[in-house]
Amino acid sequence: MIKVAVTSVFVDDQEKAKQFYTDVLGFAVKHDIPLGGDARWLTVVSPADPEGVELLLEPNGTPIAQAYQRGLREAGIPVMIFGVDDLAKEHERLTGRGVRFTTPPTQTGPVLMAIFDDTCGNLVNLQQPLG
After folding, report:
1. Residue 1 in domain
2. Which residue of 9, 63, 68, 73 has the fewest CB atoms within a 10 Å radius of its CB?
3. What's the CATH number where 93 sits?
4. Per-residue pLDDT tens for 14-65?
5. Phi first, then psi: what are they for 119, rounded to 5°?
6. Does residue 54 form part of some domain?
């Protein structure tokens, strides 16, 4: 059976991304392996599922990666969706930690959603299923 093991998000600064995704969002570092130069194999996981999908904080060091990241952001398109059990509680927690939301909690069809800036070049969607 095939399953998602690692997925990546381009970031403009790996160290800044590590701090945001761990210290602010609450993810845990799974791997932080130097690859030469400034690049690292840097993955984070949810503490609720440490053996689950790893999120690779990947440097946007190529023109293609930079254009992709910039294009999504300029269009207001989140690069990924994180699921939460209580969006109101997460919105309050993250706002208290200085996270800037570009879209406040809003019902869209069968979910509540909110979009925030990850400080590393991306918009991220939080979603809570309804019902």
Report:
1. no
2. 63
3. 3.10.180.10
4. 999 999 999 999 999 999 999 988 889 999 999 999 999 999 999 999 999 9
5. 65, 0
6. yes
Q: For 62-82, b where at least 16 C-beta lie within 10 A, e where not — what string?
A: eeebeeebeebbeeeebbeee
The number of distinct structural domains making up the chain is 1
SS3 120: coil
Q: Is the pLDDT of residue 131 over 90?
A: no
| Beta carbons within 8 Å of 21's beta carbon, 6+ residues apart | 27, 44, 55, 57, 118
Q: Which has the closest alpha carbon to 60: 68, 52, 71, 50?
A: 68
Dmax (CA) for the chain in angstroms is 48
Domain with 102, as residue range(s), is 6-129
